[in-house]
Every structure is written in C-alpha cells, then in structure tokens.
Amino acid sequence: KDTKLDMLKDSINSIINQSYENFEFIIVCDGSKDDYDFISKIKDKRIKIIKHEVSLGLTKSLNEALKICKGKYIARMDSDDYSLKDRLKIQVEFLESNLDIDICGTYAKHFGDKNDFIIDLFNKTYEKKAELFIYNRITHPSIMIRKSFIENNNIIYNENFKYAQDYELWAKCCMSTNIY
User: Fold this and answer.
1) What's the predicted TM-score (pTM) here?
2) Cβ neighbours, 10 Å, residue 169
3) Helix (H) or strand (E) holding 37
4) Residue 175: per-residue pLDDT
5) 75, 82, 3, 67: which is closest to 35 by C-alpha?
6) CA-to-CA distance for 106 and 58, rounded, in angstroms?
7) Strand 103-104 relative to strand 144-146: parallel, antiparallel, unpaired?
8) In angstroms, rounded to a whole number, what is the distance separating the alpha carbons of residues 20 and 84?
9) Contact by Cβ (8 Å): 169, 161
10) CA 122 to chain centre
11) Angstrom distance (rounded) from CA 57 to CA 147
C-alpha cells in the first residue's frame, strides 16, 4: 500500500515529467519535516519551496503561493494527486486559444482506497455556473487559471474557510468570468 511519501513522490513526478516544461513549481511544505526533507533533495531548477515550521493550514498556504507565483497561468495540485503527462500542455494551449475563458478544469478520476469514479464536467459556462448552486463539480487539483484574472479581481481564498475554500472561490469567480 502506498504511503503518504509515495503519493507525494508520484504527485511531484507527475508535474516534473510534464510534456510542457516552461513552468515554475511552487511547493508548500506546511509544517511537515518529512515532506520538506524529501522535497529539498529534488534537483529541479523549476521548484520553489515554501517551508512552514508550523502548519498554517491549506487556505493560508494557497494564498501564500498565489502571492509569489510569477507565471501567466496557475495550475493547482495536492500532494495526493496525479496529473497526466500532457495536462499542462493541453490547458495552456486551451487558454491561449480561448481568451474569453479564465479558468479551465479537467475530468478527474478518484483512485486508491476510494471507489473508482470519474467526475465529469459540463463544458458550457452557464451550466457550470448554474450547477454551483447545487454542488461543486470543479475539481480543484485539475484547474488552471489566468494569473491576470487573479490579480485584476483581487482573488484570494477566503481564510475563514478551513474546508471547501475552493467551492467559495469558484462561486466568487463565476460571477465575473467564464469557467470551462
């Protein structure tokens, strides 16, 4: 059975080995010495590590990463997620070709100790906005968002939300942009 460190290694490798290579890779080590010890040994010039001695929590860590990222687009991942090899390439190409879209996401498949199931997405923005009233089908670790949209709209995660901070963010974003 995979350990937490094995999942972290697979997650990081799924990004390092992307077919699209022009990116910065911000990794937040939120109070875990074991994670930091492992990550600090990875030799990849694209990696930038934010180290917290004591956990600040996911929401504050996400906001900290948003503040320092320099890229045109921001892709999201968690330590127990895995991206297919062409994920970043496909999302960058999509956003480059669709200037009216600020956020795009992908299908997602749950695996491991959970029952396998796929989260599918509607492709029409109005359907995405309408369904946010009922539940969140935007898979947080599959999104890519324009950095300019974040900056121009002062978008940050609401730090009052310990859980479902992504749901709150998407509800806020869908009022002023298109999500695909």
Assistant:
1) 0.86
2) 23
3) helix 33-39
4) 76
5) 3
6) 22
7) antiparallel
8) 11
9) no
10) 19
11) 22
